[in-house]
């Protein structure tokens, strides 16, 4: 399918962060765009405000007449999170419509463009958003498809006028193998999505296949220590080719110097907390240098970076401090909790965590428990199932029973709100990739009045 031939686009699962970016992209191109999602969220509300039709009822009757014709210019995009029983999905299948996964569509869009693709089991959203921000802030420009809402631009898609596209490359169900980047950044290769891959070795194999798809004369930038050959290594410390040195905290902000084999950039201010974000910045700087962005512009752009919503996002800064984060893997949680500890070593840390997926909870229960034990107080919610059916014997309890925090409570979201209102924690962190974000506004209201 050629991009210029697409006139109508229907997205099944339009409310997802990656799907909504495609909806906005095609709407901007002048296509007729509509879609279905099972849940109304602030993101779907934003799409409707932008004149993109969204339905929350999985019924053929909800599909507009324009999409019920045999239109060769119509593209149907679906997310793997949609169950195979979906009435809308099966309607389009029965019609023989052109159905593509989100990742396949990104492959179509990026074909013929200079593509910077950022992959990794964690760190990819912040790193890809930072690269896109540096290119935009420096007036170089780019089109970008991001896995989160950029706080600088309040969107998950950017529109450039040049031939450069920045893409977050998702490893779930090997989606990133539809891409053939000019520059590939790999931030991490920890075991994850074992329901798809089966083993950590298969995860690593998939990342090596992704790295093998880099175009001729293209470049690989990879975090130091990853099992990938031929890349430019980067790190927040150690002996990587591109690295941060002299890392310190000044006035509550991380500051570091960047060094590679060719140059040094001194006194870079990274507004986001945590050594892991310094590392993300080093990878982004190396990518921007490959695009010939000047060191001065890179330094200015990073200092102006506001981050990504739900990535160590400050919700309340007052008598109580409240931070919200998307972390849903043990290593993401470790980075998040460690950053909170670094910034506020004298405050009691209370964490509300919602496990995401039965399979991930089963596979990493011990790791989750170890990391969550960093918290002084833990409030643990039920598992958010997303696309999965329950697995016998798997619940939040298999994490809870292993946690060694001095106070721990397993409860519902409603009970958690009551608990927070009674305890008024001085430092609160909510974390998870499910619907825990629906707690943000109620918690903000409680703690803003503390």
UniProtKB/TrEMBL annotation:
Main location: cytoplasm
EC number(s) from the headed UniProt entry: 6.3.2.8
Keyword Iron-sulfur: no
Residues the record lists as binding ATP: 120-126
Transmembrane segments: none
Pfam families: Mur_ligase, Mur_ligase_C, Mur_ligase_M
Compartmental location: Cytoplasm
UniProt enzyme class: ligase
InterPro entries: Mur-like_cat_sf, Mur_ligase_C, Mur_ligase_C_dom_sf, Mur_ligase_cen, Mur_ligase_N, MurCDEF_pg_biosynth, UDP-N-AcMur_Ala_ligase_MurC
Superkingdom of the source species: Bacteria
Gene Ontology terms: cellular component: cytoplasm
Keywords: ATP-binding, Cell cycle, Cell division, Cell shape, Cell wall biogenesis/degradation, Cytoplasm, Ligase, Nucleotide-binding, Peptidoglycan synthesis
Molecular function in Gene Ontology: ATP binding; UDP-N-acetylmuramate-L-alanine ligase activity
Catalytic reaction list: UDP-N-acetyl-alpha-D-muramate + L-alanine + ATP = UDP-N-acetyl-alpha-D-muramoyl-L-alanine + ADP + phosphate + H(+)
Domain Mur ligase central: 118-288
Keyword Cell membrane recorded: no
GO biological process: cell division; cell wall organization; peptidoglycan biosynthetic process; regulation of cell shape
Pathway: Cell wall biogenesis; peptidoglycan biosynthesis
Residues in Mur ligase C-terminal domain copies: 310-433
Ranges for domain Mur ligase N-terminal catalytic: 9-112
Similarity field: Belongs to the MurCDEF family.
Function: Cell wall formation.
Protein name, UniProt field: UDP-N-acetylmuramate--L-alanine ligase
Organism annotation: Arcticibacter tournemirensis
